[in-house]
Amino acid sequence: MQEIDGFQVFDKELVFEDWFKVYKQKAIQPTGKEFTYCYGEQKDGVIILALTAKQEVVMIKEFRMPFKKTLTQLPCGIIEEGESPKEAAARELQEETGYKAKKIVRLTSMYPTAGMLKFTSNLFFASELEFVGQNLEEEENIEVILIPLAEFEQMVKEGYLEGGMMLAYYISKDKELF
């Protein structure tokens, strides 16, 4: 048994393992109440807000199985073993969009699904882009779209974009990266 912030945590059981893991674990609250909690764990990831010289935001359209629909998102992906978050951002940007960035700036890190998934998302801003061609993984089918910055800003204001995309925009703007 391990005590963390007044919680006694014990009996961690792996119930599923593939490209992510699912655990079931027991704990006792500081009040004495015992409970069982299920959560996932996966490799950390990156989200990249990339801006072309023409002031266009590089976005992707990709079918997302959990939602059973195609979503418009910023390029994103998993940090591979031995990679730094910045290296993963550069690799994912090039693989998914075909753009290589001369300048990549770390914005922040966040826990986008802290209640159910142990996962850190690292946000980056990329600029000084050169198109070198996509290098998609076998299961990926990604369409690249370029959205004028003014239109992207309107999408943020209207709530069309959420989570990491919105946070990446506001931090990049605050740091005067565009």
Task: Describe the protein.
There is one protein chain. The chain is of the alpha+beta class. The chain has two domains: 2-41; 45-174, Nucleoside Triphosphate Pyrophosphohydrolase. Helices cover 19% and strands 48% of the residues. It has helices spanning 85-97, 149-157, 164-174; strands at 2-4, 7-17, 21-28, 34-41, 45-51, 56-64, 69-73, 76-78, 99-110, 117-118, 121-131, 142-148. Strands 5, 6, 7, 8, 9, 11 and 12 form a seven-stranded mixed β-sheet that branches. A five-stranded mixed β-sheet has the order 1-2-3-4-10, with no helix packed on it. A hairpin with a 5-residue loop joins strand 3 and strand 4. The protein is elongated and about 60 Å long.
Features:
about 180 residues; alpha+beta; Nucleoside Triphosphate Pyrophosphohydrolase; 2 domains; seven-stranded mixed sheet; five-stranded mixed sheet; 12 strands; elongated
Summarize the structure.
With 178 residues, the protein is an alpha+beta fold. The chain contains three helices and twelve strands; from the N terminus they run E-E-E-E-E-E-E-E-H-E-E-E-E-H-H.
